[in-house]
Amino acid sequence: MFVATVGLGFLSAVLSSIMNNMPTFMIDVLAIKGMNTDRIVREALIYEILSG
């Protein structure tokens, strides 16, 4: 869980620096929605993309 959240946070930060923040957030949300994860992991990933 730690590796997934930190990895997605770095990826979100890099994509946000390349393109606008809102499209990056929408792409990340769609990626999280497509994952088959537990509720706790999903919440951690959402908080991480918000911070990224």
Automatic annotation (TrEMBL):
InterPro entries listed in its UniProt record: Arsenical_pump_ArsB (IPR000802)
Alphabetic keyword roster: Cell membrane, Membrane, Transmembrane, Transmembrane helix
Q: Which domain of life is it from?
A: Bacteria
GO terms for cellular component:
plasma membrane
A GO term for molecular function: arsenite transmembrane transporter activity
Q: Where is the signal peptide?
A: none
Coiled-coil portions: none
Under the heading Pfam families, the entry gives:
ArsB
Topological type in the membrane: Multi-pass membrane protein
Cell compartment(s), UniProt: Cell membrane
Name assigned to this protein: Arsenical pump membrane protein
Phylogenetic placement of the source organism: Bacteria, Bacillati, Bacillota, Bacilli, Bacillales
- The record's gene field reads arsB_1
